[in-house]
Amino acid sequence: MAASSTLWTGRLRYTPLLNILIFIFAVACFGPAASYANAAIKTPMDEDAFRYKRPRPSNVIIIAYTLFMPFLTILQSLVDLALHFCFSLHPIYALVISVIYFTGWLSQWTIWMDCEITTIGFYNGGELENCFMINLEHAENSTVPSKSSKGVVDARVGLGFIVLALYIAYGVMAALAVARKRKAAKGR
Q1: Greatest distance between any 2 Cα atoms in the chain
Q2: 35-46 pLDDT, tens per residue?
Q3: Beta carbons of 176 and 12 less than 8 angstroms apart
Q4: Is 49 exposed, middle or buried (0-12, 13-18, 19+ CB in 10 A)?
Q5: Listed residue (142, 147, 155, 152) closest to 40, CA to CA
Q6: Helix pair angle (150-186, 59-85), 10° resolution
Q7: What does the pLDDT look like over 79-106, one tens digit per residue?
């Protein structure tokens, strides 16, 4: 693998590998997310008066909820790889991108966990007010839409967590490259 500058040498030469892993896991997360979006769009509203408080979310909202971060991550990782191999991936850019995408994935993963995995409020008689999926028809004691499966939800959340962890590693690599750049600037 070609290093984009002297800043990406030593152990930092594995930065493109991290981008490739981010791309692979984002694509892998996109599959279950697309399956979930398709199932959520096809699932009818739950007519139970206890849960039925809001109108059905639009298909655009459902698609954005499930596919936004995986899609952006796929694009971003391809851009970063192109920049790296064209010798113009700047460490500060990589650090900023890693922080932004880490924050995005942390937000997305937290929402997925809260709305679809750890439904404590739902099981204790409470309602998940901010989760539109609660208005969709689902099996008893579950927030998974009836046209989807728990495995699809678990795969999407698990793969999202892996991408989140990879962005931590990417941020560390970028921070090390920034430190190397500053040290080189002081040495002049």
Answers
A1: 71
A2: 988 888 887 766
A3: yes
A4: exposed
A5: 147
A6: 40
A7: 999 988 887 888 899 999 999 999 999 9
d(CA 77, CA 173): 15
Residues belonging to the chain: 188
Extract the tokens encoding 126. Answer: 């409470």
Show Cβ contacts of residue 4 under 8 Å, excluding neighbours closer than 6 positions.
83, 84, 85, 86, 87, 88, 89
**Spatial distance between the Cα atoms of 80 and 88, rounded to a whole number of angstroms:** 9
Between 123-127, 135-139, 141-145, the lowest mean confidence (pLDDT) is in 123-127
Residue 34 CA to residue 115 CA, distance in Å, equals 17
DSSP letter string, the chain: ---SSGGG-GGGGGHHHHHHHHHHHHHHHHHHHHHHHHHHHHSPBP--TTT--SPPPPHHHHHHHHHHHHHHHHHHHHHHHHHHHTT---HHHHHHHHHHHHHHHHHHHHHHIIIII--HHHHTT---TT-GGGGB-B-TT--SBTTS-HHHHHHHHHHHHHHHHHHHHHHHHHHHHHHHHHHHHHT-
